Glutamine amidotransferase (Salibacterium salarium), 208 residues
Amino acid sequence: MINVYNYVLDTLSDWEIGYVTAELNSGQYFKKKSDKVSVKTVGATKDSIVTKGGMKVIPEITTNEIISAPSTVLLLPGADTWDDPRHTPVIEKATELLESGATVAAICGATTVLAEAGVLDKRIHTSNSLEYLQMLCPNYNGGLYYRDVKAVTDDNLITASSAGGLLFAQNIFAKLDVFSQDTLKAWYNYFHSGDPNYFYDLMQTLAP
């Protein structure tokens, strides 16, 4: 079982993790005999949050209920409220998970709190720009490991820019190995290009 924890907080950028949560929750394109995936929302508390898109979400669990295991995945979405101290525990949990071999995936504003905590100092990563991290994160010392790409994976850490939602999802699916290689290629090509031929290719990869 793969336990995926989607951290939710006020002003969460809905679109940045939409591909990830939709596909992992539905499993509609999973390969045969793929590991089962459980997707849960996690909050600093169980009080409801409101996303940037105006959607109200009530977290199912809190940070201290996250199961630490190599198969655990923690999703950290972009938001304008990451500087609230109430989110410190989930950054500490992210550090713990990375050290234990679990996967942490952060996009946009979530990369800033990882940078400030020193998590990115010796791991290949990306964000909205190197200057963005240097400006917002006084304790950040990971410039040598920064890559100017939309999304990148370094072992069990996946990071992305605000414009990298699709590649972010692709990197996560590849890491979890829940799609066949052909399915993942066709899935990405279709959503990247909009060419319906890739959708037919996608359907063919799922044929019995």
Summary: The mean pLDDT is 97.
